[in-house]
Every structure is written in structure tokens, then in C-alpha cells.
Amino acid sequence: MNIKPLDKKEIQLIWDKCLIGGWYADVSVVTAMEHFWSSVADGPSDFCPVEVARYMADSGVRRFNGRGYSIRFGQPVRGLVDARCSKLSRHLWSGASTQDEVVENIRSFKWVLPARKKVKSKSGGANLRVKVRENDKRADWKTVK
After folding, report:
1. pLDDT value of residue 25
2. Each residue's pLDDT tens digit, 27-40
3. Percent of the chain topping pLDDT 90
């Protein structure tokens, strides 16, 4: 795996361009990662999404949900952007800016990792039980007779 000697800012810029380009092209996350890898790799190399994800997480790429969160490689880039940054998604759908302007100003949009759902346990209170026919008076014996 031959990788070009790039600093962190260059790697981040390449990923941002691939992410926004993938949004405009309506491709999956794997395809955006392939474009990223072809820009970062030095010469032809085998593409393995897991290895690329590990490389992105190790190099500290932002706007990539690789640390402790599952990555759905088949997910469309539009879905990933909408799930992580709805303001950016709405801005892209509005068409107010060009692709280069969005890449330059992408830091102004807050990228949020998905919140882990907390499960509340019932704290010993009395269970509320509603009978199915309790609200319906058609089967009530006093009303029917």
C-alpha cells in the first residue's frame, strides 16, 4: 500500500472534495472512498474499504464516522450527509453555492456523530393497564340489556 506523503490538511481537503463530489454525483460511500483512495494512493493499489476506513481514522479525517461507529459502505453519500449534518444537506439541496464554495466553507457546518440511544428502565412504578373494551359501551351488559 503506497501512500503519497500528504499532511493532515491535504488529506482532509481531498476527503471533503470526494464527499461533496459524491453528494453531487449521488454515489455510495464506497465509491466516494474509492475516489479518495485513488487521490491518496501513489500508483495503482488494491482498494479495501476497511483498510481505507482505518487509514482515514488513523490520520484524523473529520466528517467521517469511523471511530466507534459502524460504517454502512453501501449507504448513499446523501444519506450520510443528511444523517450527520442536516444544515449542510439542506444547503446542498438548495443549490445556493457551487461545489468549490461548499468545500471551502464546509467547516462552518457542524458535523454530528449519531447519538447512542439510551434505554430507560421502568423504575418500579405501578403498571398502567387499559382493557380493550373499557372505552367501548356497545358490549357493556348494562347498556345492551
Report:
1. 92
2. 998 888 888 888 88
3. 2
Phi, psi of 24 (to 5 degrees): -65, -35
Q: How far apart are the first and last CA of the chain?
A: 85
Q: 46-60, 69-83, 102-116 — which is least confidently predicted? A: 102-116
User: Is 94 inside any structural domain?
Assistant: yes
Residue 42's domain comprises 8-108
Q: Is 89 in contact with 77 (CB distance < 8 Å)?
A: no
CB 48 within 8 A of CB 38: no
**53, three cell numbers:** 476506513
Q: Are 76 and 26 in contact (CB under 8 A)?
A: yes
- Grid cell, residue 54, equals 482505518
